[in-house]
Input
Amino acid sequence: MAKTEKNVQPWRVMLSQIIFGSTTPAGKAFDVLLIVSIIVSVIVEMLDSVKSISAVYGDMLRAFEWGFTIIFTIEYILRIISVRYPWLYIKSFFGIVDVISVLPTYLALILPGTQYFLVLRLLRVLRIFRVLKLVKYLGEANFLITALIASRRKITVFLYAVMTIVIIIGSFMYVIEGEEHGFSSIPHSIYWAIVTLTTVGYGDISPQTPLGRAVASVVMILGYAIIAVPTGIVTVELSKAKEDSQSKRVCPQCKSNDHIERALYCKYCGTKLPVMV
Amino acid sequence: MAKTEKNVQPWRVMLSQIIFGSTTPAGKAFDVLLIVSIIVSVIVEMLDSVKSISAVYGDMLRAFEWGFTIIFTIEYILRIISVRYPWLYIKSFFGIVDVISVLPTYLALILPGTQYFLVLRLLRVLRIFRVLKLVKYLGEANFLITALIASRRKITVFLYAVMTIVIIIGSFMYVIEGEEHGFSSIPHSIYWAIVTLTTVGYGDISPQTPLGRAVASVVMILGYAIIAVPTGIVTVELSKAKEDSQSKRVCPQCKSNDHIERALYCKYCGTKLPVMV
Amino acid sequence: MAKTEKNVQPWRVMLSQIIFGSTTPAGKAFDVLLIVSIIVSVIVEMLDSVKSISAVYGDMLRAFEWGFTIIFTIEYILRIISVRYPWLYIKSFFGIVDVISVLPTYLALILPGTQYFLVLRLLRVLRIFRVLKLVKYLGEANFLITALIASRRKITVFLYAVMTIVIIIGSFMYVIEGEEHGFSSIPHSIYWAIVTLTTVGYGDISPQTPLGRAVASVVMILGYAIIAVPTGIVTVELSKAKEDSQSKRVCPQCKSNDHIERALYCKYCGTKLPVMV
Amino acid sequence: MAKTEKNVQPWRVMLSQIIFGSTTPAGKAFDVLLIVSIIVSVIVEMLDSVKSISAVYGDMLRAFEWGFTIIFTIEYILRIISVRYPWLYIKSFFGIVDVISVLPTYLALILPGTQYFLVLRLLRVLRIFRVLKLVKYLGEANFLITALIASRRKITVFLYAVMTIVIIIGSFMYVIEGEEHGFSSIPHSIYWAIVTLTTVGYGDISPQTPLGRAVASVVMILGYAIIAVPTGIVTVELSKAKEDSQSKRVCPQCKSNDHIERALYCKYCGTKLPVMV
Output
């Protein structure tokens, strides 16, 4: 490690340690400052969208927004300069997020017309992805992510089943209830079926005919019961992930390390395992 | 296998491999094409139900619908021709689904009158069952289905209990709230009880009297708490299904049977485990 | 058994076997007939509450109601006559349910005035408790009930915590939102808090002020997260109940029968356990 | 214990036993009386907020409130007097709760003006914290609290992920739906996203555009599926807490440690287990 870094200028190494590292005091301070800046800039963005606040403090909020955009742009440039393989960083998930979090403000300048107003806001909203950077500061998330990845395929099957149910029931309800009760098209009825199956229940559309209500009752009870499926899947995987993280006994012979507490002999080479303290 | 197939014409064997099989390149291509066709035809059906789209592209969408119906009809005939025991296929679940997915379009021709319009649409909606054919492409579903079948009886008991609660509470609320607050009949009140117990909560009917609200509060907390029951049932069965799929090996010495697939020696007595087939 | 029954008349023994038993063909037929009668009478009751149906078939439905009431009354009397200890039956849960399921119709005769109309309906609704009799036909329910009884105390603590949260938040929301936004009193605000925490969300009352919405958001996320608690409790108890029902190996020495599959020696007396097939 | 208490006056020891202890008959009676008083005073507070009740019984309810406040104040003073280290009690959680539960009534005297009416009510509402004192009477809660503390960090990661999702989706919906459909600002849209993700679904704001409904559908299915995560976390921790409370015994021969309390011999090697204390 020390040998390969001789090729790099010392200031780049130091900059890299501050920006990318979080072990030195300067690196830690930088990280904390960055998180605070991100949160404040998101709050500024939110307040700017509130009419009554924007009318009074609009100019100040926009100044803040530009301030943060410039700071984050400089930070992005420093990251590219300091990192050893800039291209790897640029193409990485956080490299892309970093660009997306500053671009909208600049794009709003290039496209000034009122007609692009909505698009401009959509782009500005993307700045909020900046928040995603916080994720890397949380190591505990790995445990959850492992369990979710392990249950990925089962969750897909479950979502496919939910989709099929929702499309079929949505189509039926379109025929049963019809446009006069708010089920104006099949996609709209499918939306209703999702609202009902997930037990959200806005009530903006609700069945009016006895048959429609009977079908809705079945959908609700179904939705109420099948929530057990993803819950069961994730619980089983989390349980397994926990067990795996606990069994750390190492075989003195073959170095295998997935032995449960009760095991007396290595299951790979038959060597007697050391007694646990 | 090769011997018995001597009786069948070679082209039928080949056709069968393409249509029913998914191991040959041609069979795979056919399956992918079929899935894409099914999804597109369902989307066509959905778009046709949207007034604004139907007004402009109605003719085109109906042409598509006819195109898909004819293609699926030819496919159905080919399946009957190519399969060795046509009657077994026709009576099978997917044989029935295949017919149901083409019939509605033809039935709409035979019954033209306006008065059957609603019925006609109900029949057309059945075409969506075509989507169900996708299920067979997902092997991972077996695991979930096994767990659900194992918990079938307990889920039935749970659903029976839910039904009883809902009927009793629905009847009480009919008396407590009465027609002036929207609880116009016992079936309607039972519908409200289902909406509340499953935590859907449309809000199209909601209690207005203090006593009605007190009963509703009890129903809500009950619904919130008893969701634990199906969840617990499915979790336990999924957990068991996972364990069963993992531990099938028995130690010849100590008869312990919780050995993972990779294990070579018994972890309890150190005896070499028999090699897995 | 046979000896003690010599004291009873043979027809009482036979009647008892038909009414209470479900092992003889006659007993089974009686049970099935009873269940069908109960379900039909409940449906009659429901239909009678629907204005449009009651207007046309009212007389017929009331005749049915009286028919069922008389049949169930005769059944109740037969039960008292045939059973060996009538008082034990009358005081038992199902003895009380049996009386409650016939009384309302008779009470409606004694109290005829229009002013008691509502009370009369409340009494009639009680007939629906008849349905509860179905429970005894489901043996599988024991498993679930055992797990629920085992988790009884933890569920109580959970419900107590939910109650406390709901009362405190309801009171806060009463002050924050006030009567002008529908939070007209503390009990009413508590009702809203229950609607929100249990994720029912009718929408008949919803916060209007920014602070109220912030508190509501916290309540919703809380409700969304703490549902994990009853679910976890019941899952753990169900898992234990399942394990207990599986481990049926009996020690040849001390006859203890709660040995897990992996066990080699009896944990109570140290005797070697027989090898499992 | 007896030795150190010689320094204290006997009446203080006795008072302390009655107020803080719950082992002597007098201590038990005091505790029961206190719980009843707390519950009654909370009910009085609730009734006082109901307009129709307050108009008739207002004076009586306010007299009751003062009565309870004075009783609880005397109780608080007695606690300080009788306890050995008053300062420790005053700074403890329940010491603070005890003060908060009497202060609001007095503060309402010092600040009489109509303009402080709302603040006054907010202070009064705090009296409800008195209920929290009940918690200490429930020992079973420890089990649940242990499991929740163990899952604390994972729950935090989960809540952080939920927050990020809700902020991003809220911002997107603000742009997609806009003010004309009720999404009047980003904070308001985030409120909608929370209402939807937690499956509460008030329906006071609901998407009107096709794109908005598509995004809402994704949020609903996401909310429906990810509830599995906290449930899984808590279930695994509860399961572990249960196991830990059961298996504390280690076999001196084979070091296996999953022996239940009743076990006398190791189920793996037959060695006699040490007697439990």
About this structure: Chain B touches chain A through 67 residues (CB under 8 Å). Confidence is low (pLDDT under 50) at residues 1-5, 112-137 of chain B. Residues 51-82 of chain B form the longest helix (32 residues). Chain B has twelve helices and no strands.
